Fold these 2 entries.
Entry 1:
Amino acid sequence: MGDASEPIQAALSWLYELSLALGRSLDLGANCRGFFRALVTRPGLTGAAIWWRTVEGEAAVGLALPDAWPWLLAPAAVLPLTHPIWRLSRGAEPRGGRARGPG
């Protein structure tokens, strides 16, 4: 194959690696850790987190962090609805973001 197909092959290879990182366990934390380790091998990524909406009855009450890699990048294990991550997560679509560095 020519040089033009190399980026496509690299992307497909990475997606295949991510798919293999999922489903090795019924434990949510173990699945997240395997996926995060595969995910952050990409240049430019330093960490990842999954936030779950916590609900009481019909109302959302906050966001819980089942897992993050590395943990030190997570602001807290539970976030209130006033946190900016909540505003980003209110839509039905998955979201990604970048943390700002110091300064």
Entry 2:
Amino acid sequence: MDNSESQSQELLAHVSARAVHLELNGRPPTIEEQICQGLICEGFDCEGKSMETANVTYLSFDDIWHRLCFDPGIVHWRASPAEPEPWTVGEEAWSYPHVDVGLVARLIGVRLKSYKTLVAECGASVVFEFENSCQVHIKNVGDRTSYEVM
């Protein structure tokens, strides 16, 4: 075994030993190979300061909205009854603004190739890969969730 192979095995052993258990709550939707009709990230702002950019992520495929969110060690999936709307809790100075990631990233009408849930030491992520080679990463690290379009 050469040195690079040995280092790779050591890294894999280190990562495996430190892997965090991840629980799925709810049933992940069967949306692969379907056309994206919507992808909205709901942020969380406190007293005007952005705390999270993807506190909840809403995805629409086949005329059904799906809700994705995280708690430490848990990925939650639920069906959502309708297209989400931004909202506020005025007395607490909290707001939940929406970013239409599907529109901004030009994903509306594009087929979802696949999605996968990944585990990391300090959190988890769900990666959506579309036929146009665009990826959307929903990352939860240290109980803060954000999105990234790549």
